[in-house]
Amino acid sequence: MKMKKHLLAQFMRMIYVCLATAGFASLAQAKPLITSFSPESGPIGTLVTITRDGLNTTSANKIIFFGATGTDYYWSSSNQENVVMILKTTPTLTITSSDMVTVDGSLTVAVSSTAASGSGGDITYSVADGTGSAMIDASSGLLTGVHSGTVLVTATSAGDSTYYGVSVSQEVTVNSTTPTLLVTSPNIMAVDDILMAAITTTASHDTGVLSYSIANDIGSALVDPQTGQIVALTAGQVTLTVSSAGNTDYAPVSIDQLITIVQATPTLTIVANDTMLVDDIQTASVNTSATFSRGGNITFVITSGSGSATVDENSGLITAVGAGTVTLVANSSGDVDYNPGSANLIITIDKTTPSLSISSASALNVDESLSVTVLSSATGGRGGAIAYAVIAGSGSATVDGISGYLTAISAGTATLVATSAGDTDYNGASVTQEISIGKATPSLSISSASALNVDESLSVTVLSSATGGRGGAYSYQLLGGSGSATIDAVSGYLTAISAGTVTVGVSSSGDGDYYAASTSQEISIGKTTPSLSISSASALNVDESLSVTVLSSATGGRGG
């Protein structure tokens, strides 16, 4: 391999320097002068002819140094010498960069070499851990401290055709450093939010135990000192402090972050059934994410839909009024820590079946009447019209289907049925009541004349409250008095006998629907004027005689 011209020239300059220092006793003498050399290029081992002036003539001083090694050469004349060959040499390496670096800090190892510029081969770097540790880029020499202590840095030249490889080492001290902490988690929270504090650091490894603390200001929060979990309590501002305890590689350090806690909007959940029946009631309550009874007062309102309902704005008592849907709205008023909140619940109100009850009497007697009274749980006059019917049993009755006017007909039992027709809010409903119909005691009255004269007759006429020809057969009798009469016990045919008074008694025998009954009437019998008629001959002759015969209407030889 040929030596390049400029490299040979560099060797010649080196020879010049060596001659200048080694070939003279003092610098005051004339310096040697190399006037030329030949050839200008060639491989290692090429003979080089050097032409010079002013060289020391003493053999012991005629030494040429190649690198740090000196070689005696004897000159063939006073002006020139043939040099036997130029050989490879070992350069001197010197680390000139700092012997200190910090943990996570870097420096580029700087090396100077006695090798001519660009010669000596590539320099590579390595590091051996001692009490500390570090990393180095083998090519660039970039040294980075890892753990505090000492490390040994070695720079090695690879060598080339002119220079042998060589190494040099330097002990470097890795000093501890103060890392930079940065809080990267958000600096804004809402009340009740939970946040994990997030930290980044310039440190490449553990900086010691991290601890967390909160300084409350106009707001407040809690922080777990080990995990950094933050719970926002009240609106305002707090200061989060994060501290690392430090270790052999890192000094203790802390950082503050101002956290703003804003009002939260609570989540409201209405606790109530979403289906109701007309007239149902229920009390709604609200679960809120607001803590410690905060968030302001909760009020309720109903917004109408196809149905209707009412609600007590404070207690949340809901009354379903009309079938359809309504929307229940719950509102929280908010406070210093919470914004107002709201929640809706759509409630479906279905038709209901009202409860009917008959409150009028369940017992009456034959021929008695009553107006049936029905009570309904339907409100506001709703539920539809009520219709009435009677189902006969052992007894019977009639009822007006619209008005409910009921009349007992015959003794026994009958079933009264009341039915509501239903409407948009209520289903139809019905109720029954067993009616007990008792036998009645009829009212009897004698309507025939209460006065007649001796010998006059009449048929006693009786009026009865018993209906339908019921109440049993009548029987007649005389109950005495100052006068006298006769009466037919079956027909009631009465004949006055003597003046005065008599009492006529009438009794009904009763039947299945009526009890026996009786009544009486005093009859006044007056004297009468009899009718007389002469029945003897109305003509006779002189001197004839007759007994006058008189016929009288007076009976019983009476009349005087």
How would you describe this protein?
With 560 residues, this protein is mainly beta. The protein has six domains: 82 residues, no CATH class; 83 residues, Immunoglobulin-like, CATH 2.60.40.60; 82 residues, Immunoglobulin-like (Sandwich); 83 residues, Immunoglobulin-like, CATH 2.60.40.1080; 83 residues, Immunoglobulin-like, CATH 2.60.40.1080; 83 residues, Immunoglobulin-like. The protein contains one helix and 54 strands. The strands form 19 sheets. The protein has a four-stranded mixed sheet with strand order 9-16-15-12, with no helix packed on it. Strands 18-25-24-21 form a four-stranded mixed sheet, with no helix packed on it. β5 and β6 form a beta hairpin. It is rod-shaped, with a radius of gyration of 72 Å. It starts with a strand and ends in an 8-residue tail after the last strand.
